[in-house]
């Protein structure tokens, strides 16, 4: 009797293992295919400049667009994910130092990365949120590329990145923005310039930095990843709708809300939002109150 039960249990377990292995093989093959796809695109290189006003704008943008959050304060690269299930991922060393970009990395390559989410071989970059950058103005993207082009060398080398099984499964279920290049309209032309002023339009332009978590309607919702809190509603129906500009600015610079809540920078990145200027935060608040 016991022998028979053990035998049946063995068969059931065996079948389950085969099903899981089959499913994972399918996921593995399809994510590999997506990661190695070469994108045929018409490239219009961003103009690079050494003008000091352009470089200052670029320096401001690399902080407010979170480049430094992922690539490190000196943009010399940082371990972005190190988890057995998700994988080991490096946000690249963007300088010309050891472990950084090749010496001939130029305007074409910056454009591929920022506007298209692609490497120079035209395969997609992993987790590099280019879909948020592809909607910026040509002037702003050029300023970012120009600033990064002249960064002082940082020598920092890493082991190569590798993707874990959970990241592949979540990407296969479309629960993880693994390859932002897939979300970009590659033929869309950039607008030349967006006027920096306290207007809802400019606020909307800036709010692309918030969309990844607060969603396009800014109403938040489900946590962005397991273990993270619910994302707050920051449209007119949420708390920021009731705050004064001063309270809004103070929250995004200190991480403490008027209701007394403390926001953790790894969940709500106020270390990034604190870098916005008063004008930018007022424009953002105006836009959030209008929706
Ligand atoms: C959410 C984290 C994150 C943010 C924010 C981010 N990056 Fe990245 N970036 C990455 C990762 C991860 C990679 C490496 C991707 C890979 O190897 O597939 C990368 C790669 C790159 C590359 C390498 C391209 C190549 O051809 O090797 C460039 C250039 C780059 N990022 C520039 C930027 C700039 C400039 C910003 C800000 C405007 C920025 N990144 C913001 C995560 C990020
Ligand atoms: C990486 C994800 C992420 C990004 C990007 C992000 N937020 Fe948040 N934000 C959150 C989460 C999660 C919460 C809720 C935190 C909590 O409940 O502790 C939050 C909370 C807030 C709050 C507090 C709301 C309240 O009711 O107290 C404000 C205000 C806010 N975010 C504004 C912004 C703005 C403006 C941007 C873009 C410039 C932005 N956030 C970008 C994840 C994010």
Automatic annotation (TrEMBL):
Which SUPFAM superfamilies does the UniProt entry name for this protein? Cytochrome c
A Pfam match is Cytochrom_C
The chain positions of domain Cytochrome c read 53-152, 198-291
UniProt keyword list:
Heme, Iron, Membrane, Metal-binding, Transmembrane, Transmembrane helix
Name of the protein = C-type cytochrome
Protein's UniProt keywords contain Cell wall biogenesis/degradation: no
Q: Which residue ranges traverse the bilayer?
A: 6-29
């Amino acid at each position: 009797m016991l022998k028979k039960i053990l035998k049946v249990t063995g068969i059931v377990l065996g079948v389950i293992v085969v099903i899981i292995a089959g499913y994972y093989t399918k996921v593995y093959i399809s994510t590999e295919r997506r990661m190695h796809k070469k994108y045929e695109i018409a490239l219009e290189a961003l103009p690079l400049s050494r003008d000091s006003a352009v470089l200052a704008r670029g320096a401001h943008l690399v902080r407010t667009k979170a480049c430094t959050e992922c690539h490190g304060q000196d943009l010399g690269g940082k371990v972005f994910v190190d988890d057995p299930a998700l994988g080991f991922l490096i946000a690249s060393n963007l300088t010309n130092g050891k472990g950084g970009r090749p010496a001939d990395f130029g305007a074409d390559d910056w454009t591929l990365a920022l506007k298209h989410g692609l490497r120079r071989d035209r395969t997609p970059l992993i987790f590099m949120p280019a879909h948020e950058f592809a909607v910026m103005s040509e002037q702003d993207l050029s300023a970012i590329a120009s600033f990064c082009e002249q960064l002082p060398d940082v020598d920092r080398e890493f082991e190569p990145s590798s993707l874990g099984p959970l990241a592949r499964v979540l990407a296969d279920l479309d629960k993880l923005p693994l390859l932002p290049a897939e979300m970009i309209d590659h033929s869309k032309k950039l607008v030349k310039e967006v006027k920096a002023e306290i207007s809802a339009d400019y606020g909307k332009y800036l709010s692309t930095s918030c969309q990844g978590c607060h969603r396009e309607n800014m109403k938040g919702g489900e946590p962005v990843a397991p273990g993270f809190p619910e994302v707050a509603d920051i449209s007119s129906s949420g708390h920021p709708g009731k705050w004064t500009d001063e309270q809004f600015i103070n929250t995004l610079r200190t991480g403490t809300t008027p209701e007394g809540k403390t926001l953790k920078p790894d969940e709500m990145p106020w270390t990034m939002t604190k870098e916005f200027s008063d004008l930018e935060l007022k424009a953002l608040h105006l836009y959030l109150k209008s929706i």
